[in-house]
Amino acid sequence: METANSSNILASTFYLTGIPGYEEFHHWISIPFCLLYLIGIMGNCTILHVVWTDPRLHEPMYYFLAMLSLTDMGMSLPTVISLFRVLWSISREIQFNTCVVQMFFIHTFSFTESSVVLAMALDRYVAICHPLRYATILTPTLITKIGIVALLRSAFAMIPLLARLAFFPFCHSHVLSHSYCLHQDMIRLACANTKFNVIYGLVLITLLWGMDSLGIFVSYVFILHSVLKISSQEGRFKALNTCASHICAVLILYVPMIGLSIVRRFAKHSSPLIHIFMAHIYLLVPPVLNPVIYSVKTKQIRQGVLCLLFPLRISSSVM
Question: Could you tell me the CA-to-CA distances from 91 to 12, 55, 224, 235, 308 in Å, in that order?
Answer without folding.
Answer: 15, 46, 52, 57, 39
